[in-house]
Amino acid sequence: MFRRTFWFTAGAAAGVWATTKVNRKLKQLTPESLAAQAAGKAVEAGHRLKDFALDVKAGMVQREDELNDALGLHQDPDALDPAGNVRALPGPRRLRAIENQNHHRPKHSYNRNEDH
Fold first, then answer.
1. Three-class SS state of 80
2. What tens digit of pLDDT does each residue of 46-56 get?
3. Domain ranges in the chain?
């Protein structure tokens, strides 16, 4: 009698365990659950991508500083030399400084007929 009770209880417990396990899996496979899982993974991937972009940007700034040190280019992009000219700066920074320099100068007329 004890053996039958033991095996009946063990079978019932195994059945409850299996039913619970199957129901959990079925809930994970519903469209709502799959959508939530996909959204969570997308957000996680977005955070990883943002962290990667920030690491790349920090590396670029560090490398730019190293190159500026090696080339001696630590100057203010808007700085002028004593003659009022824009100092030698690389690429777009020089163009921006020249534009700022020309923007702040008074405009002179180049009409040669005005001199007479």
1. strand
2. 999 999 999 99
3. 30-74, 75-105
